[in-house]
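Exercise 3.2. Students should predict the tertiary structure of the chain below and write it as structure tokens, then compare their answer with the key that follows.

Predict this chain's 3D structure.
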Amino acid sequence: MKMRKGFAGICAAAALSLSMTVGAFAGEWQFQEGGEYWQWKYVEQDGSCKVNEWKEIDGKWYHFDSEGYIDAGGLFFLPSINDSNVGDRHYMMFSGALETNRDFGIGYVDGEGRWHETLSYYDIEQKENFCRSWGIDMDLIYNGCRSNSLTTYTCSTELFPKDSEGNPAFDVVKDAIIVCADYKSPTNTDYDWSGYSYWNMGDNYSTFTIVLDDGAGR
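Answer key:
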């Protein structure tokens, strides 16, 4: 299930038309009326839809989930385009198109859309520096996490790394924040911040909200 399915305020993929149906070669894009930005399907000429597979459309690669909707808006663990038996994290833009050859500083996407970490998991200081350069108040986050309570943090996305469509790389930022918070502010060894967190985005992707929970039964 997509983490992004609960996000409010976004009703269509950024690079796709807002009309209900958009023609493309032998098939067509169809948007779920009243749905969210990821609820696009590509319907073939015979009426079938791609499910759990890749398809190249207009020179761009898209991956469709088990219900036939595009995987969109972040990092997804998917089989590689050229080898269905190999799984890697791939960066799927909000249009659903696969990002390629993009450097986000803290990590990069290669020519086949696979995500690679530039830093190791334990390069906490460097990851924290990236977070601060993106406008994240890490001290506020650390203090909130140490308070042994639900921590909600919201900021502008103006300084966030951007994908090639010009949209903030929310998943990249989220992962860095969680690793730093997990390492620098746990109050006991049982905390797993990554297991009790979620994030959201404001209208037009202009704000970012992350919620960190210590998992204390709330």
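Discussion points: The two ends are 22 Å apart (CA to CA). The chain has a mean pLDDT of 80.
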